[in-house]
Every structure is written in C-alpha cells, then in structure tokens.
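re: ur question from yesterday

yeah so i grabbed the chain u mentioned. its 502 aa long if i counted rite. heres the sequnce exactly as i have it in my notes:
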Amino acid sequence: MIPSQSVRNDEHWLTVAMQESFDEISLLGAEDFDFLVVNQSAQSNLQYSATELARMHLCDIAPELDVDTMTRLLAQLRTGKRGVVTIETTLLRKDGYFYPGNVRFSLCRHEEKRAVLMICKDQSAAQASATALGLIEARFRAIVSNTPGLVYQFRLMPDNTMAFPYLSDACHALLGVSPERLHADPGQFIELILPEDRAAYLASMQASADDTRSWNWDGRLWIEEWKDIKWINLRAMPRARPDGSIQWEGIMTNITQSKLEQTEIKRSRAQLAELSAHVERVKEEERTRIAREIHDDLGGNLTAIKMALALLKRRLPDDPSLADKADYVDSLVDRTIESIHRISVDLRPSILDFGIVAAIEWQAGEFEKQLGIPCRVVSSDTDIDLPPEQSSALFRIFQESLNNISKHADASSVQVHLLRNQRGIRMEISDNGKGIAVRDRQKPASFGIRGMIERAKALGGSLSVSNLSKGGSMVAIRIPLPASTASSMNDITQAKKKPAHE
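ran it thru and got these structure tokens back, copy pasting raw so excuse formatting
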C-alpha cells in the first residue's frame, strides 16, 4: 500500500505543477500517444479544450511526430543516459496555423502506467525576434559596407588601456591594418598617428570622455603599407559603461583629398593676395610717379606759360579784343593748373608725406567742405609712422568709405577713430545714415567693399562692415604694425612701466 500511495502523491504534485506552469505540458499514453492530461497553457495555445484533446493523439497537433517517430523516440529514452530527448518541430493550432516549438520528452508514470511527459516551449516570439534581429543585422551590414569610412567601437578602460570591440571591413583600406591586428593590439592605432598630432588626439579623446560629448578630430596617420601620410577625420559619440569604461561608437573617414584641396586653396589665396598687394603697390608707385611728373613737368610748364603770358600782356598794343583774348588764355592756364593740382592730389595726395594722421584729417576736411557733412576725426596719436604701402592702403580704404557714405548712406555726420596700440592700428568710420543691408554687401558688383577688404587682407589685417544699433553703419579696419614700429611701441611701454627713480 505504501508504494501505491507514494505514486499517487507524486502524480498529484505532478498534476499541480503542470497546471501552474507557463510552459505547455502534456502527459501522453506510451502506446498510441493519446493525451491523458493537458495543462491550461497547452490548451490556450493549441486552442483546444481538455475534452477535445482527450479524444486526440499527438500526431493530430504535431504531424511530423507520427507513431513510428514517437516509437523511435521512446527507444532513445529507454536506452539514453539522460532520459530526455529534445526536438524542434511544428505544432498545429485549432485555427489551422502552425507555430514552432521546442519539445522535450521524458518517461514517467501515470495511474501506475507508463506515460510520456511532453514539455513544449512556443518558439514563435523567439523566432520572430531572431528574424527581426537578422534583418537588423543585414541592414547594419549593408549600411556599413556602403559607408565611405571605417565604422568602429572604441573603449577606454579605467586603467587607460584601450580596446576596439568592433571594426568594420574598411579597417585595412583606411588604416593599412587588418581588424584582427588592431583587435589584438589596440595601441597600434596611436602609433599610426604622426608624433606631432598625437597630443591633440589624446587631448580631444580625454575632453570627450570627461564631458561625455561628441569627439571630432582631424589628424594625420603614417600608413606603413603604402609609405604614405593620410588625413583622417574621426567622429564618435561616447557613453559611460557600468564597469567605469567609456565606449565610443563612430566613423573614421579619409579626408586626405579635401585637406590637399584646402591647402591648395589657401596657397592660391595667398598667391592671389600677394599678387593683389603687388598690383596695389605697383599702382601706388605708378600713381606717385605720374602725379610727380604732372606736378613737376606740366605744372612747371604751365607756370612758365603763365609768366610768359603776363609779359606778353604788358607788351600788347592797346587793343581791347587782344586784351580779352589774353585774359581768356590766362584764365584757361589758371584752370588747367588747378586741374593738374586736383589730378595730382587724386593720384597721390602730397599730404601723405606728412603722415597718415594728417592725410586722414585732410581728407575728412575735404569731404566736409565738398558735401557739407561734418566729419570728425579722433586719433590716439598726432602721428603714426607707417611704411608708404600701408599708409597709402589705409588712406585709400578711408577714401572709399567716405565715397560709399556720400553715395548711399544719407548721413548727416561721420565719426572717425584712429587708434594705435601694441597689437596694431584700428580705424573705425561710422555714420548716422540708413545702414547697409546684408544683400547689398553680397551683391556681385559690390567691388567697393570687396576692394577695401582685399586691401586690408594684403596688409595682413581685416575689415568688417556692420550696422549700428542706433542706426547707420561702421567700417572697422585692423592692420598689424610693422615689426620696427611694434618694437618701438614695446620699448615705450616698458619705459613707462619703470619706476621714476631709475
């Protein structure tokens, strides 16, 4: 009696466990594999009631598991060491749909008869997840394979050791090193960086790690396989890991061509600026020469003509018509002398010989006299010693600024500030007019402003045009002082700082 009671107790607890389990559990007869007991999870998933399943056999819901197949499985269970057989099969629901299942069979007893315990796990969700993951991986591989660069993961450990958890197939094409070699020796990447660029690389990496912000770095690598230097751009986003390490996901791209193009553009611009400066210098020299020849030769000749004409007028017979002719010729000579003087001044004002401050003040006075617009000049120095080319260029910029104000600003006053300090010279020309629109500055035909900017660049300086908050506009020019002038300024400044008793 005791063994029979023990069997009944075991069957009771087995039945309880079956009903409470989330897996699909069934007890099958060991002869024709009919359903003896089916738990609620199996009934729900198969969509059959316990009564319906009691009239069915295993092959009704698992067509692949016919009697012959199950007989072979039973033989394996009897002879196997573990007493469990696991297979993958498909099961049929009542609605006609199949679903994948992972099924485990083991031998047991039910009501003192031999039975088969079947535990089934529905693999639909796992299979769907695997399919979705496969699609995601396929898309990722497609994106990576078509990305013009090396997709990578980089990890910085708390002890400052490094690792590359992932490197795409473009590793060798970009770095000349296989992914396997870089996985095995991550420090090899730093060795590829040119020594003069390594400090910037490490500093940018540390800044990205400290602030957890985007990492963007340009640098040069020495590719041993091709004996060549390559520019790369590195962009990556960091994230902190639970173990204290920082991991970046990003991309490295080859920017050698764009860097070479940038270098060529800079070189071309430098050559163009140098040519422009040379052209301006030659123009100023030519203007100076022509102004001098006009003033000396033509001016001298006209002065001689005027003197000879005065002598002739005194010796003319008392004839009113001849006197009128002589007066007309005399006034014509005077007008010509005035024209020569004006043309000479336009070509190169002789006032520049007295310094840039005097020339600016003179031009401001001429502007005020011709247009009736007050033009006030404030200078930090009574005289600023500049080389002739700098003095001429600054004066021409000032002339063009006044010309623009007279044509477009509708201003009633102009302020000019000329300041010198240890860094250079700053000149600001501001007016109270209507200002200048951005679109007007960017017009293709805006050669006035463009010419001023080029003149300033040729001097190694800069020029900006901006609107003032109270109305009007301001042209600001900055140019560096010549080395000799800057040295003198430093000497003066140091002298001022010395104690009086010295």
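noticed a couple things. The two ends are 124 Å apart (CA to CA). also The chain has four domains: 2-128, 147-254, 261-347, 350-494.
anyway ttyl
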